[in-house]
Design a protein that fits this description.
The complex is a heterodimer. Chain A is mainly alpha-helical. Helices cover 79% and strands 0% of the residues of chain A. Chain A has a single domain, classed as Orthogonal Bundle (MetI-like fold). The two termini of chain A are 39 Å apart. Chain B is mainly α. Chain B has a domain of 175 residues: MetI-like (MetI-like fold, Orthogonal Bundle). Chain B is globular. The chains are: A mainly alpha, B mainly alpha.
């Protein structure tokens, strides 16, 4: 064998295991979802037609978008001041806050979902506090859109804080100082210098949170309203309760298409390699 | 500025508070989810450590996590060398393939595995969960190992080969020992990814191969079993130890250093 052939053989030897494995255990099952979405048993578009013509499905899709947008906006509004103060104050304050955020980040979604179940439950502290404040009887909080949205914000905030922090810590503090010395008010210096420079962190954090929210299964199913499902919960129900694999596949393809569109938009304007970098 | 600080502290409280709620719950005597607890005891801890229905999923999750970690590393480490060190046709496509399991929503893969593994007759088996989790762990493991490989100074290899070492010996005595920490971190992330993965496991692990997240999901959804607060507290304690221990370690080392300085 020549050196070039040798080199090629080595390359394939290194890559073939993972490519083969993903082809057999990732691409085939994914391909099957696409396949089953248009077969029953012959080629048909009826599963998509069923989705498109049913107002209930449109409501689920629209509701999923709405919830994802709301969770993303709330996470950003809450995470931004936190990340900003971490960068601004530094020292022990920053260490403590980052420790808390990291702790939450690594704690299982299920543990945190369970915690919200307790907090918002009928015998929980949230309702007790409401009744103490004179809201008697306190409304049912669990299994509503409110409870699942609140819990999702809590679950996804660490992603937002870390995305913001990783960009903010690289902003040179001398830039805002320079703006101040040239006569800008503190707010103007923030708005015209710091905020635009932190924009990549905002875009990264929002993209991550929005995408994770679109496909969120566990928390909306456990805490959310059964009447106002999100799309992942709908897919689960189509599999488990109705055994409608064709419709579940079509719904999955729609979720996949929406998710890929968000990624494509991000890739077009920012570049996918920066999302996890 | 004051207002922003107060806002930040409130958000920090929002992040931390719910994590702490599970701890007193686990010592509660209440048999439903009641907070604050009416009284305290250790009964649910005893119940957890004597309950097969909880211990089996714990063992399953650890076993599946370790197998996933091993398999993922075996697949990803060789590929990372090719991807980082060579430029070739189709590299972009393979890069995309390696990242794809991170892009596709887990519920979509759960459906895919549900039908595919039924055909292969490995649904509701640990093997099926390991194969699925390995696919899902490839991207995160690849990101970490490729990053550590990019930071490797290849002059070390050149020096070894200059001194007469064969390529294989160079790998075992130079490359591998230097990169081992990066490989281990990549493996650790694969383990954690599998240990925490809920959605695919809910649909394909069944009763026989039930993982801990699946058991917790069922427990919250169906039975409101108070033992879940014990499991949650233990999982939280592991995270707490893992996050705080480097800090504690550094403090101890520092104290040690100052002790030496005074001696």
């Amino acid at each position: 064998m020549t050196a070039v052939q040798n080199e090629k053989a080595l390359l394939w030897l290194l890559l073939l295991p993972v490519v083969g494995f993903l082809a057999v255990f990732f691409l085939i099952p994914l391909g099957q979802v696409l396949y089953f979405s248009v077969m029953d048993p012959g080629f048909t578009l009826k599963h998509y037609a069923a989705f498109m013509t049913d107002a209930f499905y449109w409501k689920v899709l629209f509701g999923t978008f709405q919830t994802a947008a709301l969770v993303t906006a709330l996470s950003l509004l809450m995470a931004y001041p936190l990340a900003y103060m971490v960068v601004k104050l530094g020292g022990a304050f920053a260490t403590t806050i980052l420790l808390i955020v990291t702790m939450s980040f690594w704690t299982s979604f299920l543990v945190r979902t369970f915690a919200w179940m307790v907090i918002l439950g009928n015998n929980g502290p949230f309702r007790a506090a409401m009744e103490m404040l004179g809201v008697v009887p306190a409304p049912q909080l669990l299994f509503t859109r409110f409870s699942s949205t609140l819990a999702m914000v809590h679950l996804l905030i660490p992603f937002m804080v870390l995305a913001l922090y990783s960009v903010m810590k690289k902003i040179d503090p001398n830039l805002t100082r320079a703006a101040r010395s040239l006569g800008a008010s503190p707010f103007d210096a923030f708005r015209r210098i710091f905020l635009p420079l932190s924009a990549p962190g905002i875009v990264n954090g929002c993209t991550l949170v929005f995408i994770m929210c679109l496909g969120f299964y566990v928390t909306p199913v456990l805490l959310g309203s059964p009447r106002e499902q999100m799309i992942a919960g709908l897919i689960g129900q189509q599999i488990e309760e109705f055994l409608e694999f064709g419709e579940a596949s079509a719904t999955s393809v729609i979720l996949l298409a929406v998710t890929l569109s968000v990624f494509a938009l991000y890739n077009r304007f920012v570049g996918l390699d920066k999302l996890w970098g | 500025m004051q207002i922003v600080l107060i806002l930040a502290l409130l958000v920090a409280l929002f992040v931390l508070g719910p994590l702490l709620v599970v701890v007193p719950m686990s010592f509660s005597t209440a048999n439903s989810f009641e907070f604050p607890p009416p009284d305290y005891w250790l009964g649910y801890y005893r119940a957890f450590f004597n309950d097969e229905r909880w211990l089996t999923p714990v063992v399953n999750s650890i076993g599946i996590g370790l197998a996933t970690m091993l398999l993922t590393m075996l697949l990803v480490i060789p590929a990372s060398f090719a991807m980082v060190r060579r430029r070739f046709m189709g590299r972009g496509a393979i890069n995309l393939l390696l990242m794809m399991p991170m892009i596709v929503p887990h519920i979509v893969m759960a459906l895919g595995y549900y039908t595919y593994f039924s055909q292969l007759r490995i649904i509701h088996s640990p093997l099926g969960v390991v194969l699925a989790h390995t696919c899902l762990s490839v991207p995160v493991c690849y990101l970490i190992i490729a990053a550590s490989l990019k930071g490797f100074d290849r002059n070390l290899e050149r020096a070894a080969m200059n001194l007469g070492a064969s390529p294989l010996r160079t790998f075992w005595e130079i490359t591998f020992p230097v990169l081992r920490p990066g490989f281990l971190v990549g493996g650790l992330f694969a383990f954690i990814h599998s240990f925490d993965e809920a959605v695919v496991a809910i649909f394909i692990s069944g009763q026989a191969a039930s993982t801990l997240p699946r058991k917790m999901f069922d427990s919250i959804r169906i039975e409101a079993d108070p033992i879940i607060s014990v499991v949650s507290t233990l999982l939280f304690a592991v995270v707490l130890l893992a996050v705080l221990s480097p800090l504690a370690w550094r403090a101890i080392m520092k104290a040690h250093g100052s002790l030496k300085a005074t001696a």
